[in-house]
Amino acid sequence: MKSNYIIVFFSLLLALTTQAKLKVFILAGQSNMQGAGQVNINPKSHTKGKGSLEYLVKDPKTAAKFAHLKDKKGQWVTRKDVWIRYDERQGGLRPGFGARNTTIGPELGFGTIVGNAVEEPVLLIKTCWGGKSIMVDFRPPSSGMPPKAMMEKMLGGMQRREPKATIKDVEAKVGFYYREMLSGVAQTLKDLKKYYPAYDGKGYEVVGFGWHQGWNDGGNMDNVNAYEENLANLIKDIRKEWKTPNLPIVIGVSGFGGRNQKVDRRLGIIAAQHAVAKRREFKGTIASVETRDFFRPAEESPSRQGYHWNSNAETYYLIGESMGKAMVKLLKK
User: What is the pLDDT of residue 16?
Assistant: First the structure.
């Protein structure tokens, strides 16, 4: 009987140790993963702050949904169970981890959902840079080099600025931000105590990857036509790099313009992103999230930058929230 108790005790101890592992999610992409959703009301804006996070928590139409983001004193809540590292910034998840400390990206909605769903502590690592394509900047190793004509065009442009530039210099730019992404993740995981001070040394697990990108690739049809294959290759390459063959991945599609979007290039990127999630080889491990319904017109937003979702905080939050819900479903499979 005594030996049975000992077995049960050590089984429970092992379970608790496993549960204590830090769960790591990587969020990657370009400027819209960085995030331009305005936090504070700007009384000088053309909408008097409409679409900012501060407006959303005050507006009777949306206050209930966003009430959890502020405490009883009216201050933004900082989570203790969900931390984030983005460039030189890190801390408990709260508004202000967008491209600037006055903006949000998808991380706030995403972190809220996964943080509520996952019992273990959570760390979000954001690796994103504005104005970057998957055709060149995030190009994964499995895609090889871009077409020769594109490389020659890139060389010509580079030589106008740097006459001594060679094709080797062009090759160095291909996939540069893919490598930077891997480097940023590796550096964070190597020094977890710095980026998650409560880390107890019980180990970590990379459990999910979120991707929100596509504006730059939607600039020409060559990029659009190659997008599905490039994104599929990126997924396979990061899974190999992180030794996670079935890593759950969520793609927030590039739904700029909402349901009124008619530009074939923009629609082509959306179709390619959905197509990746439907590939048989990725069955049950990847989800694409439709974002067009989250687009808000400039008349309801802090800015008129359609390519940055008009800086609408509700849009960014809803994108992250939906990506988080999709991620939680994948984690349960």
Answer: 40
